[in-house]
Each structure stands twice: as C-alpha cells, then as structure tokens.
Amino acid sequence: MQQTLPQLSIGPLRLDFPVVQAALSGYSDWPMRIVARRAGAPYALCEVMLDKFLIEVKSSRKNRRFLLVTDEEHPVGGQLMGSEPEQFPAAAMRLVEAGFDVIDINFGCPVPKVVGRCRGGFHLGQPDVALEIVRRVRDAVPEKTPVTVKMRRGIDETPESRDNFYEIFDGAYAAGVAAITVHGRTVRQRYDGPSNWDVLREVKQHAGERVVLGSGDLFTAGHCLEMMRYTGVDGVTVARGAIGNPWIFSEARALAAGGPLPDPPTLHEQRAVIAEHYALADEVFGERRCCATMRKFGIKYARLHPQYQQVRSAFVEVREPGQWREVLDRWYAADLPGCHPPVEEENPVCAALLE
C-alpha cells in the first residue's frame, strides 16, 4: 500500500524523499556519501568534525578528504562538535567555505571519551551553553545556510534531563534552527536497548509544524517508513543501517511508492557497488590507506552475501590493494541471489507494527 510521506524541508532546501543518511563517525566520508546518493539518498551528512580541528587544519592532500564536497552530492551537511561556544562560529564558517549546504550541531554523541571532554551529548546537561552554541553558529553562517541540531532524548531518564531536553529543543528553534534530529535513546544508553519511539512521537506532537527527524533502530526500509508512520516525524536519518547497505534508500522509495520490498541485490549488483565504493575511496585516500579504510565497509557489505561468514573473513584478511579484486573475483563471480542483511536490534514497537 502506498504511504503518503511528508515533504521534507530543511530551511530553503527541498528534498524529494524524507529518508536520509545520518552522520556516522568514521564512516560517512565522501565515498560513502556518494554511494548513498547514487542509491537514492536525497541528502547525507559528513562524519562529525571537531571545532578545534576545523579551525587549525591545514589544506593538504592528507586533509582534503575531511572537507571534500563535490557537485554530485549537493545538498550535503557538515556536522560540528566541540566544547567551547566561542570556537563554533569559525569552525562552522570553515564548513560553509568548504561547500557544505547545512551546518549540523552534534548534541548527541554518547561515546564516553567525547562526553568526558564536554562534547556531544554532554551539552544536553547544560541548556545555557548548548543554546549559546546554537545562537553563535546561527549568527555566524550566512542566512541562506540552514543550521540543524542532532540530539538524544536526554542524558538519562530523570525528570531534570527531560526538562533540559525540551529547554534546548524549544530554544534551538527559537534561535533559528531549521530542523532537529532526535535519537530515541538517552546518552547513558549509548547503543544499548531499544530506541524509544513513543518519546519520538511525543516530541513530534510537541513540535507541531516544526521539522523533526527521527533516529534509532532503522535497519531496514520498513523500519524507516514505520517510524514516520508511528511517530509522525517529518523524516528519518539512517545511521548503522546504511553501512554496507546503500540499497536501503532505494528500497524505502519502492515501499513508499506502494510496491513490494525489492529483492536484495544480486551478487553482481553488490560487486559493482563495492567496486565503485573502493574506486571512490582510492581516489581520496590512495591505494595504501584505501585498503585499510575499506576493510570495515567490506565486513558490512558481506552481510548481504549468502556465505556471509566466509566473505567477511575474506575481507578481514585483505592487506594489499590487489586482494580486494581477488575477493570480488572469488566470492562474487556467480550472479547468485543476495540476502537482506540481518537486523542488529529489532525495535519492539516496530516489530509489533510489522507483525
């Protein structure tokens, strides 16, 4: 059955589909973003960058990958994280000058070493500082450049954390942000336990016409559409579910159009995309570094292969550039049916909806 999806607008940007690729630390570099866009993602976010790094980084071949934006991927978002409000404006402008169309402020990262350095999710416990950061970034970048925020639903489950969340949430819109992405887990949860879709529904009801994107437990195209239907959010950002599975975007488009879930890509279709991804990474990193960088993607792509364990092991063992071609030649030679990747964590609300 065709699902009527809301139009997704991020400030002046109009996206033709409300399922986008999230910022993924260590993953959503230029090659991954390009592969996602070619697979149907209308928008993608760069992996998060530190304000201090952006201010101090020198232009060089080694560093160009961090700020690389090409014509094909517009619109594209740059995500920014830091601790000191006064450092954010210059860092945000560095992203604008590099060509990023949207500046996204990270108040959601739950990694202990990040939170311990007063970055990411740490700011959810200090609304005054968080909102100062938002105002400084909004004032610094051109008016035409949308500013967005990524949040978790709080530090923890306490009433104080909930109050802080809504103070930042409402204050950020009042300061001029175009959209806010809310992850349904708390910072303390990290990636353990389910994303709370009921909280996301409550947040969207509170937001009214303000643009809210949902995040958390989106591992299949069906999950993406069910989150939008159940919570009412205007769009969703796919994070771990997009690593090694860019087809999730075209599958979501097919389901939203009223069609059945497409068959998973055949091995030849997978081989073509993996080779394309490798070529893009080689262009950016060079053959030596590319090999190591792509290993983590190969492990994820292997989940779509009917002989997952053997193929995963083959990618893990790759040490030389030529070995990538050997893996593809051996394990992707026959055009056999592929598999949909296993769901890492089935959200209980979504599981009930899909029964």
What does this entry look like structurally?
By secondary structure, the protein is α/β, with parallel strands linked by helices. The protein has two domains: 8-256, TIM Barrel (Alpha-Beta Barrel); 267-331. It has helices at 30-38, 51-56, 88-98, 112-115, 127-140, 159-174, 197-207, 221-231, 247-256, 267-285, 287-301, 308-316, 321-331, 348-354, and strands at 8-10, 13-15, 19-21, 44-45, 49-50, 76-81, 102-107, 147-152, 179-183, 212-215, 235-238. Strands 3, 4, 5, 6, 7, 8, 9, 10 and 11 form a nine-stranded parallel sheet that branches. A two-stranded antiparallel sheet has the order 1-2. α3 links the parallel β6 (76-81) and β7. The longest helix is centred in the last third of the chain and has 19 residues, at 267-285. It starts with 7 loop residues before the first strand and ends with a helix. The model has no long low-confidence stretch (mean pLDDT 92).
Question: How are the SSEs ordered, and which strands pair?
Answer:
Blueprint: E1 8-10, E2 13-15, E3 19-21, H1 30-38, E4 44-45, E5 49-50, H2 51-56, E6 76-81, H3 88-98, E7 102-107, H4 112-115, H5 127-140, E8 147-152, H6 159-174, E9 179-183, H7 197-207, E10 212-215, H8 221-231, E11 235-238, H9 247-256, H10 267-285, H11 287-301, H12 308-316, H13 321-331, H14 348-354
Parallel strand pairs: 3-11, 4-6, 5-6, 6-7, 7-8, 8-9, 9-10, 10-11
Antiparallel strand pairs: 1-2
Helix pairs in contact: 1-10, 3-5, 5-6, 8-9, 10-11, 11-12
